[in-house]
Amino acid sequence: MQTMSVIDLPPGTRIGDRYKLLKAIGQGGFGITYIAWDESERCQVAVKECFPQGICVRDATSGMVVPARDSFEPRYMKAIEYMRREVTTLAGLDHDSIVRVRDVIWGNGSVFCVMPWLPGGTLRDVIDKKRASISPLQATDWLHSLLNALRYMHERSIIHRDIKPANIMFDEQQRPVIIDFGAALNRAERTSSTTTSQGAFSHNYAAPEQITGKGHVGPWTDFYSLAATWYELITGVPPEAADARLLQDDVKMLSKQASKLDYPVEMLALLDCNMSLHAKLRCQSVEQWEQCWAEGSLPTILHPAQRRRRVILTSAVFCIVALGGFYAIYSSKREESLRVIPLSQMPTRDARAELTRYIQHEIHFQEFFQLCEEYRRELALLQEKHARATDQFVARYAKLIDGVQEAKAAGEVSRALYREHRRLSNVFDKETSALRASYMKDKKRFFLSTEDIQEQVRPRNREEELMFPTVCGEISMKLSAYEAGFIVIFSEMPDKEKLNEEYLKLEKSLSDKSVSLL
Q1: How far is Cα 184 from Cα 237, in angstroms, rounded to an integer?
Q2: What is the pLDDT of residue 283?
Q3: Region 126-149: what's the mean pLDDT?
């Protein structure tokens, strides 16, 4: 096999009977993209060649693509299969904001996918060269178009997994078009809990579940990448990578910069929401994103514990509405009408926003959020302490097994293991109970409900009196999102089941050693 001297094919290379390569314009971990001339249609096209980096090489003389090593052949054939599946996926899609496949050519030991040439450049170019000239209205229209394209994809169980400025191009009408479905094809199984693979994501725009390989991909994965992309479009600065944010989150929320950004605050708040590190705190579907956008609210959380709280919250809101109804009957006797109206029918958005600010000021939200962050750190320390106790527990078991060689009778060893297991298990039970008691006690310090807000704040006029129950419910749902974050953290704390599993494995190891002693 000859040593690789070139990667991309030279200009003038013919692909099939009608395509002539003009130049290479991009290269990624999964393939090379060229501009080509379609001699039949007399127009420029884009051609993507399957060329997985590090797996294959190109023969300097013939241009043939071959595996870099004989042992790489299965991986190269798998890459070819990914390309075939990508082409098949794109061939079944028909949407103005999703790139189309015009032709597929097999040759040179590889496969070439022919797509329309998009002359408007990429969003990467827009951000680098003329971001300041993009109006909020234009950026909002683009976002709506891309959400519409994601809905179309997600309805067909397709997750792109590599939304970023370089993978959004513009056609002749300056409409955004999503390109490069190589990552979506690399790991098509939606049930997989690991999402890292070659060329499968771009670091600054990838969701935590992609970088860490923990969790499930889904629509929420694309939403994180899209929100991160729009974060850079709005601020001019790419967001910090998710793995760094997991250690210390320094990303400044867009909604907190609303006063100096000329974007709708509802849009900024939803972009913040969809850049959440916990997948369950993001929108779960495009419909939910757009509904929240229209209503000026944040998504509800789909955690089991959160569902229980939602039932309680709904009951509380129902009671408030019922009380409002009784009060309306009373007021009607004085020829005054009082009714609770939905968000969509509120008098003005400014009035609702002003009332929301008033309520938040009255119940001291800054102190509330500070307390939340302090408790989040406290809970993280408890997790670490709990995990350390678990490791010590397992280490003591391992030490006990190491001492088996000195035992004379298997029966004595079994009794010693049983006694030690009971003692350590009791210690662990006490530690677990203490941690849970601490959590249940301290959570009451900041979990607020609609009733709490009603007790602390009073409407100042009739308009606020009409909007008050609904705005209280909206604020309570936002507070519930904070609670859900703590519930997720707490639910991930190690429990006794891990210790029991370790006990069974170590006990079996002990029994095997006992048999060898006999």
Answers
A1: 26
A2: 92
A3: 93
Q: Which amino acid belongs to residue 385? A: K
Residue type for 172, please?
A: E
CA dist 197 to 165, 189, 210, 213, 427, Å?
Answer: 20, 13, 9, 9, 42
Task: Encode pLDDT of 268-315 as tens digits.
Answer: 989 999 999 988 889 999 999 998 888 877 776 544 444 455 545 555
Answer yes or no: are the C-beta atoms of 50 and 74 closer than 8 Å. no
Classify residue 142 by its DSSP letter: H
Q: Where do the DSSP E strands lie in 81-214? A: 103-107, 110-116, 168-170, 176-178
Q: What is the predicted pLDDT for the residue at 147?
A: 96
Q: How many other C-beta atoms are found inside a 10 Å radius of the C-beta of residue 82?
A: 25
Answer yes or no: is pLDDT of 4 > 50: no
- 3-state SS assignment for residue 159: coil
Which CA distances in Å does 500 have to 245, 395, 497? Answer: 33, 14, 5
User: Can you tell me the distance from the alpha carbon of 179 to that of 33, in angstroms, rounded to the nearest whole number?
Assistant: 11
Closest CA relative to residue 166, chosen from 116, 114, 203:
203
Backbone angles phi, psi at 125, to 5 degrees: -65, -40
Tokens 């601020």 belong to residue: 235
Distance between CA atoms of 173 and 194, rounded to whole angstroms?
38
Helix axis angle, 496-517 to 365-402, nearest 10°: 10
Residue 61 and residue 50 in contact, taking contact as beta carbons nearer than 8 Å:
no
Residue 6 has pLDDT above 70, yes or no: no
Amino acid letter for position 203 = H
Evaluate if residue 317 carries a pLDDT over 60: no
Position 468 confidence tier, pLDDT thresholds 50, 70, 90: confident
Domains and CATH numbers, the chain: 14-116 (3.30.200.20), 123-295 (1.10.510.10), 300-518 (no CATH)
Rounded CA-CA distance 277/280 in Å is 9
Nearest-angstrom CA–CA distance, 451 and 129: 51
